[in-house]
């Protein structure tokens, strides 16, 4: 099998999406930790358009953008599929993965801002979470059904990073009585061995993100 | 398959709808087109896409599929007897998906920013530059993906051709608005030839709107902001 390399960053949920996919499929890979404040020449060469992690390099060929990477992984290594076989179900999985991708930034907006801007971000995040609660999960254990899939990995940030942001900012967006399905999903998702064993240390993440927020709010 | 089995909710002027139409034409699928009225949303649309309330929505055997690129992939996966739309190699598919996402996330906001007509001065210049720079990146992508052939998809139109090509009418409208070409011989020579080929393709000709008609829609968009 050709060599697989992943360029990632430990605080990033986008990086973890790819780690989870590789681990769920049992694909051996070399992990390269990027310092986002000092990006390597290799990363900039592999992702000149966005200059971001994650980047997967398979047999020397780079792929950027986590959702693109996840689908590439699923199509190249079909064991433990991330997408269902049925075309309509696949379209729904892709729909929710895209939703998570497009709307997930509202949670990060809460993290990066204060005052009125933050109020707006909180409102938008609640709407997004409500949509997931009411429409995306249905009665299923995971977004992917009985097992995790593309949409679960894409929503993975909610399982840990959301809680850390809530603690730093001092708000509680997701509670069991307002979001019972989402809370159940968070517990179930974190119990999956691959996920459980592959999450950043919560304390370390809290300290790191708290420091980042202080810097962000201090800059003009 | 009965025509009533496949419906597309959309509007003829929307580049996102045009993507779905081209995919249907590529596969020679009979469909019923349900035109939405500008400025209002039908009950069927709101029922079929309650999350985003946007067009296009493909309805196949009463099941709704939303998001233009997801619709194109769905069409490619279900109607396997027609020409393929996505590349067969997983790496080529990844590249096509990467650029399609770039077009939607980074490039399209520039285009719509200009079309809405609200930008002025330096802000407008910046957006025009960003849009042009994006097309130069897509020119480079074309050189790699086409492998010397006529389309991003190689010998025939494919996913990335459809993702970008659906905007060609609106690109023309924008060029008229700003008084300069963004797809031109100097900066994007390959795209010039590609654009002509794409618009002449039998799957595209019937569904690509005339520039004059798009310019009327542009006026409505500008008035509605």
From TrEMBL, chain A:
What EC number(s) does its UniProt record assign?
2.5.1.18
Taken from the UniProt entry, a GO cellular component term is: cytoplasm
Write down what this protein is called.
glutathione transferase
Q: What organism is this sequence from?
A: Tetracentron sinense (Spur-leaf)
GO-annotated molecular function = glutathione transferase activity
Main enzyme class: transferase
Locate the coiled-coil region(s) and give their ranges: none
A biological process term (GO) from this entry: glutathione metabolic process
Q: Does the keyword Transferase apply?
A: yes
Which keywords does the record carry? Transferase
All copies of the GST C-terminal domain together span 86-215
The text of the family note is: Belongs to the GST superfamily.
Automatic annotation (TrEMBL), chain B:
- GST N-terminal domain ranges (all copies): 4-83
Query: Residue limits of the GST C-terminal domain?
Result: 89-220
* InterPro entries associated with the record: Glutathione-S-Trfase_C-like (IPR010987), Glutathione-S-Trfase_C_sf (IPR036282), Glutathione_S-Trfase (IPR040079), Glutathione_S-Trfase_N (IPR004045), GST_C (IPR004046), GST_C_Tau (IPR045074), Omega/Tau-like (IPR045073), Thioredoxin-like_sf (IPR036249)
Entry keyword annotation includes Transport:
no
Q: Which SUPFAM superfamilies match?
A: GST C-terminal domain-like, Thioredoxin-like
- A single Gene Ontology CC term: cytoplasm
Q: Name one GO molecular function term.
A: glutathione transferase activity
Its UniProt entry gives the catalysed reaction(s) as: RX + glutathione = an S-substituted glutathione + a halide anion + H(+)
Annotated GO biological process: glutathione metabolic process; toxin catabolic process
- The keyword Transmembrane helix is assigned to this record: no
For this protein, the Enzyme Commission number is: 2.5.1.18
Q: Which UniProt keywords apply?
A: Transferase
**Protein family membership:** Belongs to the GST superfamily. Tau family.
User: What is the designated name of this protein?
Assistant: glutathione transferase
From which source organism is this entry? Tetracentron sinense (Spur-leaf)
Q: What is the lineage of its organism?
A: Eukaryota, Viridiplantae, Streptophyta, Embryophyta, Tracheophyta
């Amino acid at each position: 099998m050709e060599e697989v390399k992943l360029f990632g960053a430990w605080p990033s949920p986008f990086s973890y999406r790819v780690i989870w996919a590789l681990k769920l499929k049992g694909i051996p890979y070399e992990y390269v930790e990027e310092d986002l404040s000092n990006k390597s020449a290799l990363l900039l060469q592999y992702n000149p358009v966005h200059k971001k992690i994650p980047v997967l390099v398979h047999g020397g060929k780079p792929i950027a953008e986590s959702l693109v990477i996840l689908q590439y992984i699923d199509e190249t290594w079909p064991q433990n599929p991330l997408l269902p076989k049925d075309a309509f179900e696949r379209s729904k999985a892709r729909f929710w993965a895209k939703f998570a991708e497009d709307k997930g930034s509202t949670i990060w907006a809460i993290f990066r801002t204060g005052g009125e801007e933050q109020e707006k971000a909180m409102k938008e995040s609640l709407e997004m979470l409500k949509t997931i609660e009411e429409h995306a999960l249905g009665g299923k254990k995971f977004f992917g059904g009985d097992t995790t899939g593309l949409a679960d990995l894409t929503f993975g940030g909610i399982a840990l990073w959301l809680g850390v942001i809530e603690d730093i900012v001092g708000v509680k967006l997701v509670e069991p009585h307002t979001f019972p399905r989402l809370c159940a999903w968070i517990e179930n998702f974190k119990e999956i061995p691959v996920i459980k064993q592959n999450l950043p240390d919560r304390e370390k993440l809290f300290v790191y993100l708290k420091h980042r927020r202080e810097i962000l709010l201090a800059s003009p | 398959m009965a025509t009533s089995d496949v419906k597309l909710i959309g509007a003829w002027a929307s580049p996102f709808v045009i993507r779905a139409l081209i995919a249907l034409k590529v596969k020679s699928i009979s469909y019923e087109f349900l035109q939405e009225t500008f400025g209002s949303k039908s009950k069927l649309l709101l029922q079929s896409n309650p999350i985003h309330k946007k067009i296009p929505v493909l309805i196949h055997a009463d099941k709704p599929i939303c998001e233009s690129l997801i619709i194109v992939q769905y069409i490619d996966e279900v109607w396997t007897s027609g020409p393929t739309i996505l590349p067969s190699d997983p790496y080529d598919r990844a590249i096509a998906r990467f650029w399609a996402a770039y077009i939607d996330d980074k490039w399209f906001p520039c285009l719509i920013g200009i079309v809405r007509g609200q930008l002025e001065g330096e802000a407008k210049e910046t957006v025009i530059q960003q849009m042009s720079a994006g097309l130069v990146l897509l020119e480079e992508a074309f050189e790699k993906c086409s492998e010397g052939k006529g389309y991003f998809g190689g010998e025939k139109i494919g996913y990335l051709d459809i993702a970008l090509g659906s905007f060609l009418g609106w690109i023309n409208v924008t060029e008229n608005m700003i008084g300069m070409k963004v797809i031109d011989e100097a900066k994007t020579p390959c795209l010039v030839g590609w654009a002509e080929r794409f618009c002449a393709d039998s799957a595209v000709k019937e569904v690509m709107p005339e520039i004059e008609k798009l310019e009327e829609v542009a006026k409505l968009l500008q008035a509605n902001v």
